[in-house]
Amino acid sequence: MPQTSSTTSRQLQQKPNERIHRLECPVCKKKGDWFAGAYGPFCSHRCKLIDLGKWLGGEHVISEPLRPEHFEKYAGLPPGEDLDLPEKE
Questions:
Q1: Judging by DSSP bridges, how do beta strands 23-24 and 31-32 pair with one another?
Q2: CA distance 53 to 46
Q3: CB-CB contact of 43 with 26 (8 Å)
């Protein structure tokens, strides 16, 4: 019987000159390169559904609506990749 092709964290291969971004799955805390797979940032379909259930069930919530004053400290940033860099204090 031929094997079906499925991608797991063990099967993901690092490409030459590519840095692996190891991070924890937000649900089960396993470490891996989850963005390389189909469920990133989660390690599996199961963890993705668990997280969705927490949002739909009200366990995960955004504490307050965003207002324009929340963005004032970012007004001077140029558009683009600078927005993805952590703040330096």
A1: antiparallel
A2: 11
A3: no
pTM of the model: 0.51
The rounded mean pLDDT for the chain is 76
Domains defined along the chain, listed by start: 19-60 (3.30.50.10)
pLDDT band at 76 (very low <50, low <70, confident <90, very high): confident
| DSSP string of 48-82, one letter each residue | HHHHHHHHHTTSS--SS---GGGGGGGTTSPSSGG
Classify 15 as helix, strand or coil: coil
**pLDDT confidence of 8, banded at 50, 70, 90?**
very low
d(Cα 88, Cα 23) in Å, to the nearest integer? 21
